[in-house]
């Protein structure tokens, strides 16, 4: 009888994780935290530095944090876009002062300016509570045709800039006794995504670096949150890396595609993950989310299914169309 009960519970457990993700737009833990966990308002008054905040996920995360009276440092290379985001933050929350939202033009790949920039922010705001490593770019390319310089350039932006800045910030957090590192990874940091070899490698590398840090320190006062979005309705495709150095993909993103989650929703869920100090969260429409659960928890079954579906399936799931010639 006990064996039958255990077997029934096991079957129900697996069925739950096969079926339930089809009806949500994030992993189960984040879904529960959204419903029953800490509200975003617990971040009120925090000083948050967001790199890559001139558009997309970073921009909409800034809006969510502005609503709860966070003090923000908005960083990217496009100053005019940062000014636009700042103005929207102040419009969203009139109680914020102009000095509460800092437009800070910043090239994350200029490592020599990282320490000086951190010092400036601490001097201006008196502290830094949360660093959000959000700067980065995607890629569309055929694996064997990728020039090694593309790999180096993409890792420089997506990985090494975040690592260098985070090491400086972590030392500061350790000195003051608390802080929070947030990293925008991707479902590509969990899966092997076709036609984005360098990008997928860079996101896997982020998990390796930051999970190593988490295991090394095990410091509950300095949590590390890995945020893994799937397809989001942002105009990222046109600026994506390709297989050729210096050449952008140049194709417009179908921002209204049904397979993509809105950046507003992604920014909100990301703020929930930060407020609840989650180690990792997945944010995506159901299709990609279910594939992630399948690959992570049922690898043998996933191999059988995905082999039948083929690489074009992944492209449609991600871009709503075939974007790279599979011949």
Automatic annotation (TrEMBL):
Q: What InterPro entries does the record tag this protein with?
A: NAD(P)-bd_dom_sf, Sc_DH/Rdtase_CS, SDR_fam, SDR_family_member_7
Q: Which GO terms describe its molecular function?
A: oxidoreductase activity
**Keyword presence, RNA-binding:** no
The family annotation for this protein states: Belongs to the short-chain dehydrogenases/reductases (SDR) family.
Keyword annotations from UniProtKB, A to Z: Membrane, Oxidoreductase, Transmembrane, Transmembrane helix
Q: What is this protein called?
A: Dehydrogenase/reductase SDR family member 7
Pfam family of this protein, just one? adh_short
């Amino acid at each position: 009888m006990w064996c039958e009960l255990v077997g029934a519970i096991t079957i129900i457990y697996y069925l739950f994780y096969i079926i339930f993700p089809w009806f949500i737009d994030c992993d189960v833990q984040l879904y529960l935290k959204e419903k029953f966990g800490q509200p975003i308002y617990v971040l009120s008054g925090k000083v948050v530095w967001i790199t890559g905040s001139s558009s997309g996920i970073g921009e909409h995360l800034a809006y969510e944090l502005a609503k709860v009276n966070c003090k923000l440092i908005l960083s990217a290379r496009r100053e005019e876009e940062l000014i636009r985001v700042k103005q929207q933050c102040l419009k969203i929350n009139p109680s914020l002062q102009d000095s509460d939202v800092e437009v800070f033009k910043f090239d994350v790949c200029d490592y020599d300016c990282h320490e000086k920039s951190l010092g400036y922010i601490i001097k201006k705001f008196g502290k830094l509570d949360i660093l959000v490593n959000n700067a980065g770019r995607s890629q569309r390319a055929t694996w064997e045709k990728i020039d090694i310089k593309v790999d180096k350039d993409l890792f420089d932006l997506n990985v090494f800039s975040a690592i260098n800045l985070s090491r400086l910030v972590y030392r500061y957090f350790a000195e003051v006794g608390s802080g929070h590192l947030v990293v925008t990874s991707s479902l590509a940091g969990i899966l092997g995504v076709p036609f984005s070899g360098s990008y997928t490698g860079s996101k896997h590398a982020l998990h390796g670096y930051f999970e190593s840090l988490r295991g090394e320190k095990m410091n509950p006062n300095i949590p590390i949150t890995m945020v893994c979005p799937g397809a989001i309705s942002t105009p990222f495709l046109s600026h994506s890396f390709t297989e050729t150095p210096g050449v952008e993909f140049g194709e417009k993103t179908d921002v209204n595609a049904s397979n993509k989650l809105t950046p507003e929703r992604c920014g909100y869920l990301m703020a929930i993950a930060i407020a609840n100090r989650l180690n990792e969260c997945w944010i995506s429409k159901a299709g990609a989310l279910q594939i992630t659960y399948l690959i992570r928890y049922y690898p043998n079954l996933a191999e059988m299914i995905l082999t039948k579906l083929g690489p074009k399936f992944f492209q449609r799931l991600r871009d709503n169309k075939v974007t790279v010639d599979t011949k």
